[in-house]
Hints:
The complex is a heterodimer.
Chain A: H1 6-15, H2 27-35, H3 51-56, E1 68-69, E2 75-78, H4 84-93, H5 107-111, E3 115-121, E4 128-132, E5 139-146, E6 151-156, E7 163-170, E8 175-182, E9 188-197, E10 202-209, E11 214-223, E12 229-238, E13 243-252, E14 258-267, E15 272-281, E16 288-298, E17 304-313, E18 318-327, H6 331-339, H7 344-360, H8 366-371
Parallel strand pairs in A: 3-5, 4-6, 5-7, 6-8, 7-9, 8-10, 9-11, 10-12, 11-13, 12-14, 13-15, 14-16, 15-17, 16-18
Antiparallel strand pairs in A: 1-4, 2-3
Chain B: H1 3-13, E1 26-28, H2 35-44, H3 49-63, E2 87-89, H4 101-110, H5 116-119, E3 128-134, E4 137-141, H6 144-150, E5 153-156, H7 157-163, H8 165-171, H9 182-190, E6 195-199, E7 208-214, E8 225-230, E9 235-243, E10 251-253, E11 256-261, E12 266-274, E13 286-296, E14 302-309, E15 314-317, E16 320-323, E17 329-338, E18 343-352, E19 358-368, E20 372-381, E21 389-399, E22 404-413, E23 419-428, H10 431-439, H11 444-455, H12 457-460, H13 465-478
Parallel strand pairs in B: 3-7, 6-8, 7-9, 8-11, 9-12, 10-13, 11-13, 12-14, 13-15, 13-16, 14-17, 15-18, 16-18, 17-19, 18-20, 19-21, 20-22, 21-23
Antiparallel strand pairs in B: 1-2, 3-4, 5-6
Helix pairs in contact in B: 2-3, 3-9, 7-8, 10-11
Amino acid sequence: MNASTAQAFRDSALRHATRYAPWLDRRPSRDALADATLPEPRCEAWRHTNPNRWYGAERPARRQRLDARGPPNIRVIPFEEADAEDRHRIGQHLNATLDRARYPLANVNDLLLDQGVLIRVPRAAAPAELLLGDLGGGYERALVLVEPGAECVLTERPAAPRQRVVELVVGAGATLRHIRLQPSSDAVEHHLVSAQVGAGATYRVAQHGCGSPLRRCDLHIAASGAGAEIAVRTAYRLGERQHLDTHIAVDHAAPNVVSRQVARGAVGAAARAVFDGRIHIAPKAQGADATLTAKHLLLAPDAAAYAKPELEIYANDVQCAHGATVGDLDANALFYCRSRGMDEAAARQLLVMAFLAEALGDAAPEAAQALLGMQR
Amino acid sequence: MSGPNAAVGERLAQDYAAGFVTDIESETLPPGLNEATVRFISGKKSEPAWLLAWRLQALARWRKMTAPQWAHVTFPPIDFDAISYYSAPKQGPKSLDEVDPELLRTYEKLGIPLHERAALAGVETPQVAVDAVFDSVSVVTTFKEKLREAGVIFCPIAEAVRECPELVQKYLGSVVPQSDNFYAALNSATFSDGSFVYVPKHTRCPMELSTYFRINAANTGQFERTLIIADEGSYVSYLEGCTAPMRDENQLHAAVVELVALDDAEIKYSTVQNWYPGDEQGRGGIYNFVTKRGACLGARSKISWTQVETGSAITWKYPSVVLRGDGSVGEFHSVALTNNRQQADTGTKMLHIGRDTKSTIVSKGISAGRSQNAYRGRVLMNPGASGARNYTQCDSLLIGDECGAHTFPHIESRTPEAIVEHEASTSKVSDEHLFLCAQRGIDAEKAVSMIVNGFCKEVFRELPMEFAVEAGKLLEVSLEGAVG
Lengths: 376, 484
C-alpha cells in the first residue's frame, strides 16, 4: 500500500483491511475512519510535519518477531493466541482510551494491524518489570492493563515500526513507570501512546532518544480519576536531517490532579524538532497543579525548533504555568569550561549533557544516557 | 423607586456607560456586498481610478477566501450580504460651529475634549489632536494647522488619497496585503474611512494624536483603514479609543491598521477598546475582527503596541510587528479583560527578519463570568535574525469558576544565534490576598479591582497618562458584578 495523500491513504486502508485476529470488531474503526478527516499538510496539528510523507512511505516488510517479555506472573498474550476470555477483555478495552477525533490516524491501526499484544499486570508484592521490543515493524498495537494497586515498570524499545499504538489503562492506586527508548532509524514512523490514569494512580512516562527522517510521537494522557499524578519527561538529540515531532497532551479531567512535563531537545546539523505540549483543565477539575517546560538548543546554523506550549483552562482553582526557550549554548558557560582547559568540543558536549540531564530526572536509565550520547 | 429597587435601577443604568444611540440623519447603503457597493463607496469619496481598481481586486480576492475557523471563539456564521457597508452623517460640516449639536453632545458623553482646548487656551498642557470618526466619516479634525506647521499630516484617509496620493499608493497594503486574511480583504474592498498620519524626517510629532472610533447606525460595519508612516528619525504617539452605543444585533468591525517605521523612527500606538460587549446572556455586542500590523522597515526603528481590551462580544486581534530593519524593536503590551459571555482571542506576532532585532511581549488576560479569553502568539526567528531576542510573558487571572483562560504561543526558531524565552502562568485571585484586604476593611469587589489593577500595572505603565487613568476606571466598571 502506497498512497501519498490523506484521501488516497484512507481509501486504501479501507480497502486493504488485514485478516490478522479476524475476531476483532473492526467496524467502529472502519466507520470512524470513513467519517474522519485525516491530517492534511499545514493543518494545525501537523503544521510543521508533512503527513503526506507518512502516507506515502513504504510499508516495511513484516518481520516474524514478537519481543515482549515479563516475569512469569504477568501474561503477555499476542492477539492471535488470545482465548475467549482474553478476546472479551480485548474487545472491552481496545480503543476505549483513544480520542478518535483528536487522533484520527489511530483508526487505521485496527484495520491494518500486523501484531498486537495484551498485557495484564495484576497486583503483586514486587513491582513487575516488562519489556516491549519489536512487534513486527508494521502496524503494531499494545494494550496494557495495570490493575488497581499494581506496580509496574514498562520499558519500550520500538524497532522502527510504521505505526505503534500503545493503550494503557492505569487502575486506581496503581503505579506505572513507562520508559520509551527510541534510537535513530531510517523509517518514517508514527507513535501514539494513549493512557487513562485512575484515581490516586501514578503514571510516569519518559521518552528519550533520537530521530528519524520523520518520527511523529503523540502522547495523550487523560487523568480521569481524582488525585492522579502524571509526569512526562522527554529528552532528544537530533542530527543530520532528522525530524522529530512530539505532541504531548495532558488532560486534567478530575479534581486534584498534579502533572509535570519536562522536555529538552538538542538539535544539530539540519535537523528539525517540533514540540507541542498541552495542558487541558476540564471545568470540574478544580485543584489542578500543572507545569510544563520545553527548552531547545539549536547547535548548528541549519537546525530549527518549533515549540508550542499550550494551556487550555476551564476551571479557576488552578496553578498552571509553562515556559519555553530556544537558543544556543550559553556563551558564558562555554567560556567558563574553556577557561578550565577543556577544548571546544568537550565543553559543548558537557553542556549539552547537562542540558539533556534536566529531562532525565533522578532515575536516568543508563540505556537512555547511551542513546543520547551522554557518556563522557 | 426607593430602597433595593432604586439600587437595582441605578446599577442597571451604569452597566454600560457608553450605551446610547445618537439619532441623527444618516445616509446608509442598503445591505449587501458586490461591485456596485464598492464603486459606490469609492465614488462617494471621489477616489482616483487606481484605488477603485485596488478595491475591486480585493473584493475579487475576498470572494475566493473563507472565514478563518481556528480562533478559540464560537459564533453563528455572519451573513455578509445582510450588512450595510456605508453609513455617513448627511450634513457635511466645514467647521466645529457647523457640526450637528447632537453629534457634539455625543462626543461630550464620550468625553472627547473638543471644547476643552479653547477653555484651556494659554495653559501649558500636553495637547491631543482628535480625529473623531463617527460611523464612517471623519467629522472634525482639530489642530490640523499646528500639525501642518510641524509638517505632520494627520487627516482622514480619504483626504490623504486626494492630498498626497503618492504616499498612500506607496504604502497602502504594503504591511497588510489585500489577501492577508479574510477580514483584511473585506476591509480592503469596503473601507469607508480612517486616519492617515505622515511624520516627516527627523520630526517629533508635537502632540499625541488621537482618534475615536464609534459604531453608531445599526447593522453597519465599521471598516476603518488606518495608515501611519513615520519617516526617518521621527516619532509619533497615536491613541485610539473606542466606544459604541448599545445595540441588540451584533455589529461587525473589521478594521485594518498599518504602521510603517523607517530608519530610527518610532511609533507608539495605544488603544483602549470598550465597545459594547453584549449583555449578560451574550445577546448583542460587537464583533471586533481587526488586523493590525507594523513594519519596522528601517534600521533601529521601533513600533510599540499597547492595548487595553475590555469591550466587544468577540475580539479577534493580533497587533504584530515585522522586524525587518537591523536593530529594530517591537513591543506588545496588552490587557484583555472578558466578563459575562465575552470571547477574546488576542495576542501578537513578532517576526524577526533583521539582525539584532528585539521584541518584548507582555500580555495580561483576565477572565470573569462565563467568558473565554485566549492569548495566541507567534514568535518567528528567521535564519538571518542573528543576535535577535524575544521575551514573552503572558499571565492569566481567573475570577469565577465558569470562565476559561487559554494560551497558545507558537515559537519558531530557525537560527541558533537567536534567543527566545516564553513564560506563562494562570491562577485565580489568591485567597490570601483577598483575606489580607478583608482584614484591612476593604470589601471583596474593591479588593479584586485593586488586585487586578496591580496585575495589569506593567501594561498601564506603558499607556499615555490620559489613557492610563481611563483604563483603570474601565477595568473597574467592566468587572462589576464579577465578584461575590
